[in-house]
Amino acid sequence: MKKVIIASLAAMFVLTGCNTFKGLGKDVSSAGQAVTGTAQEVQNKI
């Protein structure tokens, strides 16, 4: 019974971690797009 509980908890943490990294990847991607957009605006002004 203990093995089932431990396996369930481990699976829960793994799946939660995947969602967290997925969200982090979206945040980093959004920041990169903002930097790219700003750099293009500056380049167009020059």
**Main sheet overview:** none
Give the N-terminus to C-terminus distance in angstroms. 68 Å
* Total helical segments: 1
Give the % helix.
Answer: over 70%
Strand content: under 5%
Taking all Cα atoms into account, the compactness measure Rg is 20 Å
Can you write the helix and strand succession as a string? H
Global mean pLDDT: 76
The tally of strands reads 0
Low-confidence stretches: none
Spatial shape: rod-shaped
Q: Could you characterize what this model shows?
A:
The protein is 96% helix and 0% strand. It is mostly helical. The model has no long low-confidence stretch (mean pLDDT 76).
Throw out a few tags for this protein.
1 helix, rod-shaped
Concise synopsis of the structure shown:
By secondary structure, this protein is mainly α. The chain has one helix spanning 2-45.
What's the helix and strand layout?
Blueprint (H helix, E strand, L loop, with lengths): L1 H44 L1
